[in-house]
Amino acid sequence: MVDKSLVKDLKEKIISGSAAAESDDVLKSFELIKQISKEVDYLKGDVEGSDYTCQLVFSDLEKEYWIKVSKGIVEYDKGKLDSPSFTITTSKDIGLGLFFGEIDANIVAPLGKLGISGNYTQLRLFQEFYEDVIDEFKKEY
User: Fold this and answer.
1) Exposure string over 102-121, b if 16+ CB within 10 A, otherwise e
2) Whole-prediction pTM
3) In this structure, which topology does domain 4-140 adopt according to CATH?
4) What ranges do the domains of the chain cover?
5) Mean pLDDT score of the chain, rounded to an integer?
6) DSSP, res 8
């Protein structure tokens, strides 16, 4: 079961908008990924069949976060990884907008507001996975 206080907090963050959030609020989004992927069968399958790490860099704040989805386990934290599968570099507002489900990466990337490096196949898998997490969150909570 997804923690009720996490659901409440994320709903408030989404209503307030990414501009009103703190950069560390992305960790709440990562926690949602971790919790909801244990509850929804097809998401559980995605986590079990995945093996990648995402480095997220908020370039305007010089803050870094990471999330690892590998063989049934989701881990995340602040800081820099030595060799992530892919890196997403953007501003705090755009980054949180992505992880709060407010912004579509396919729209902001061509505008130059989203820097991407690394394995694009794994990035696409993560993007599809995360969009499914957001859809489930909106549908169920």
Assistant:
1) ebebeebeeeebbeeebeee
2) 0.93
3) Nonspecific Lipid-transfer Protein; Chain A (3.30.1050)
4) 4-140
5) 95
6) H
